[in-house]
Amino acid sequence: MNSVLNFADWAKQHQVRIEDVLDEVLPHTESTPQKLHSAMRYSVMGGGKRVRALLCYAAAELCKTNEALTDAAAAAVELIHAYSLVHDDMPCMDNDDLRRGKPSCHKQYDDATALLVGDALQTLAFEVLSTPELCANANQQISMLNLLARASGTSGMAGGQAIDLDSVGKTLDREALETMHQLKTGALIQAAAMMGAAGGNITQINAVQAYAENIGLAFQVIDDILDTEADTATLGKTAGKDADRSKPTYVSILGLQAAKDFADLLFKQALQVLEPFGIEARRLRELATFITQRSF
Amino acid sequence: MNSVLNFADWAKQHQVRIEDVLDEVLPHTESTPQKLHSAMRYSVMGGGKRVRALLCYAAAELCKTNEALTDAAAAAVELIHAYSLVHDDMPCMDNDDLRRGKPSCHKQYDDATALLVGDALQTLAFEVLSTPELCANANQQISMLNLLARASGTSGMAGGQAIDLDSVGKTLDREALETMHQLKTGALIQAAAMMGAAGGNITQINAVQAYAENIGLAFQVIDDILDTEADTATLGKTAGKDADRSKPTYVSILGLQAAKDFADLLFKQALQVLEPFGIEARRLRELATFITQRSF
To answer: Which residues in B lie closer than 8 A to residue A120 (C-beta atoms)?
Structure first.
């Protein structure tokens, strides 16, 4: 049935689905501590395009991962992403007042609440994905948990964030920049696809990994291009902030046109590794287009 | 062999052991990002009496949980505890400059680093405990991960922290105070024992749970008594700070003597549930004494 939907409808269907799953797993606003629960929902619900969840669902479709496990993995990766945004926006980090077109969590609530929100969202990601009896094969679930943890920690997202902090005002060469982005953004994007694949057939797993590496990096290159070109209203977050703070970007190192060419190369490489899989990889292919041609 | 050791030697043996496990799982200071890795080690190593790890080992001894799984669980619970201390000490929370007799993480490094240290330590806890092929029964490992996550999130530690924040300057009744402490401190102490038990025989699990509930609460009551009586040098952290900030404590609500009597009652209840298990529960019994008679 999914195969007859066009991409926009498939994406919409799965954006609604992940929103429902997140709504179900987030604690209710009526239960104590209410302010924390309210701030967690404020920071997670109705936000973004859910690219990571979509990658998880698309890879699960290719690898035939069971639905309950895929829902949990997709929710977990979105919760990790949401936690990272809340903490990144805090005054001691990027000090950003705007997120997804709304006041960021620490502006809407306060710094202490934002700290706890990020902490609790991270925990919730691992709680959701460690739900007992989610699938018949607990080893697959352990693999997914470990993929998520490795992508989020110091050899992934948190590590990239630390390198990013250290790089303000410094000149990074292209290799150092790629390492930083690979950890900060790429690792979690990759993990999203790999988690979707990890609960199913292992024959496609190397291809999904190669696809995810290219798409993860492309995502960041596009981010830098958008940060240069777009205005704040379109992005829903403060535009041009990296350049303002002398943070190195792909655009600042390569120049605008070369950055665009590089994103195009990564896009083509991502498609190439999916060639053997025909129609079953169509959602991953469509997502590659969606990510590299986005304006958000 | 363990059964012939006196408690002090058993505790010392397992304190050395958890220190070795933590040293092994923490990222090396030489690898990038070095500052983050260095700050993580600063915040974890050589700190505290490792009460949570000892509870985990003691329960594992009673329930015959396998060693690799117990090491991972003990390390994970200590990493969660360490992350919570780093974030609690930050300026937007308790703003505490002293921890375990040393400058707290944000004083030794900076706020942004402390934020990332806490984040990365939490992730590392789940990474360590989700190591693939740690034990033959992946379902037991999933149970442990879920116990840890539930004890750390909004229905556990983070929830208690949020209630604590909201309670500054307010008058809590005893029931509300118990709920707050049960979440903030008790839940993780309980989880430590329950995780040690979850990888083994399930016949003792209800007793371990009842034991852990009493000990978790006793731990906090003693904390309040020590906060009133001890000086900063003995505690290795700032003494009297809760009273200073008009935070309700067991001493402020019950009075000093009644708080001591209450801790004694909890201690006796903890011992009572272990009665059926004879010598195999001796380490849990000795830990109950250690915790309720401590001066740290």
So the answer is: 153-154, 158-159
